[in-house]
Amino acid sequence: MSRIMLVDDEPNMLSALQRALRQSKPLAGAQIETFTNPFDALNRICVCEFDLVVSDFMMPEMSGGEFLQALKEVAPTTVRIMLSASTDFKTAMAAINDAHVFRFIPKPWQQAELEQNILQGLEERQRLLAEAGKAPSPQELEARRLEAEEPGLLHVKRSDDGSIIL
């Protein structure tokens, strides 16, 4: 199951983006967390690993480029995608060069393009994990899938004497 983080200072934009991802059949079942504050998003990624992050560029507390650059430092194998209403070439190049952004998607986005870029980003994540020697085994992937379908299925609680607690 994929974990995706969405960061945008506009709650309506976050809702639209989340709705777009939930409508995508290939992304069905993905765990999506949203943040309007990039500092809260950075705190969250320090305690929970995400496969992919989609961030707006223009945010008041911290630019999307600064956020994704900080994210690269704490979670180097998390794939970074930037959304922006700006068509400024320098903006896109700075994001790509400084934060190693995987894709730069213009607002308003096209549903098919957004979906394709996120799916490619998730494939890139697997490649990055394999390079880093952190790729999950097929058994781990299956265990994650089962746990997502039935939370608690793989976690057995035992008493001190070793008997199973129901």
From TrEMBL:
Gene Ontology BP, a term: phosphorelay signal transduction system
Residues annotated with 4-aspartylphosphate modification: 56
Pfam families in the cross-refs: Response_reg
Alphabetical list of InterPro entries matching this protein: Bact_response_regulator (IPR050595), CheY-like_superfamily (IPR011006), Sig_transdc_resp-reg_receiver (IPR001789)
PROSITE patterns: RESPONSE_REGULATORY
Annotated keywords: Phosphoprotein
Response regulatory domain location: 3-122
PANTHER family: STRESS RESPONSE REGULATOR PROTEIN 1 (PTHR44591), TWO-COMPONENT RESPONSE REGULATOR-RELATED (PTHR44591:SF19)
UniProt-recorded name of the protein: Response regulator
Organism the protein comes from: Duganella callida
